[in-house]
Amino acid sequence: MKRFFDLKIPPVAVVLCAASLMWVVARFLPVGDLQLPARIFFAITFAAIGVLTSGLGVMEFRRARTTVNPTKPGATSLLVHSGVYSLTRNPMYLGFLLILFGGAILLRNAFAFSFLPMFILYVNRFQIQPEERALTEKFGATFTGYAARVRRWI
Questions:
Q1: What is the reported pTM?
Q2: By residue range, what is the domain housing residue 108?
């Protein structure tokens, strides 16, 4: 069943919205300040791993010559299950989550971390589930077998 928000908002826009809200919360709710040792190191490390993970996902799609457009999963020409896709079905979304986690560490505000589960819930419901329905329709047992072998996130 298609819902209004299914595949409507590009995931990059969702990341930018979450990051902006995290910043606003950290700025205006300083009561959530945390003391995080080596926060710059950890923030950069998680964000860099996130960029790498997302980048590897994009590279696999490009190598397979299939669409990277997350709003049109039905336009995919090939089910990609090599490289990073053998470890996670959604490396781009996992990468975005790691980038947001790095941002939350950098902001060192407990309330900023609350946007991480919201990001996961939103992406699962309005992006990943509709994508998986489209891929099941297009690739059938090939996709369902892949989904049974490889986890959605990690």
A1: 0.93
A2: 38-68+84-154
Helix (H), strand (E) at residue 13: helix 11-28
Q: Which is nearest to 71 in space by CA: 5, 119, 152, 20? A: 5
Q: Tell me the pLDDT of the chain (154 aa) as tens digits.
A: 556 667 788 999 999 999 999 999 999 987 778 888 899 999 999 999 999 999 999 999 999 999 888 888 888 889 999 999 999 999 999 999 999 999 999 999 999 999 999 999 999 998 999 999 999 999 999 999 999 999 999 9
Task: State phi, psi for 64 to the nearest 5 degrees.
Answer: -80, -5
Whether 103 is covered by a domain: the verdict is yes
Q: Could you tell me which residues come within 8 angstroms of residue 133 by beta carbon, excluding any fewer than 6 positions away?
A: none
